[in-house]
């Protein structure tokens, strides 16, 4: 999973495919194709790709922010690999995943913050939030560190008033799904049988909300 960002409408043929905002890009490679140009931004020490800028007039896509389809992402990676001698590493960290709140406690240094333990199936992460509806047992959507929110906020590992945080709660409003605010505040797996929900922990949000997928 990767995030697809469209630049200002004045540059309506320029997009950026975000793989991992945590990668510090210190080099780039320009790949000229027959009908498009790809600019790969990467860390030259690890060869991890941070993002790929895509210049292609034939792309007709109106969303400013969306989740790239696996098919679109695979085509971009295939074109890069066919036209470079470099061995790039495409690690998808720009993800939004389903997680279940298994513990909620007050932040030790703030009355307005909460420390959450969120189960993603194969791991439990600690996430700080100020939202009051984040009660134990809810299945909600979460930005992982390395992702990018629609308002341009880069999600990073860090600390909030001395307590570590490994992600951020994802709201319906931030994704442009205002008609589904109730689901995103209570249960993003509302369409799944209760006895099946724990098996979905850690999965990409697009498996349940395909409206978020762009190209």
Automatic annotation (TrEMBL):
GO MF, one annotated term: tRNA binding
Domain TRNA-binding: start-end pairs: 90-206
Keywords: RNA-binding, tRNA-binding
Protein name as it appears in the record: tRNA-binding domain-containing protein
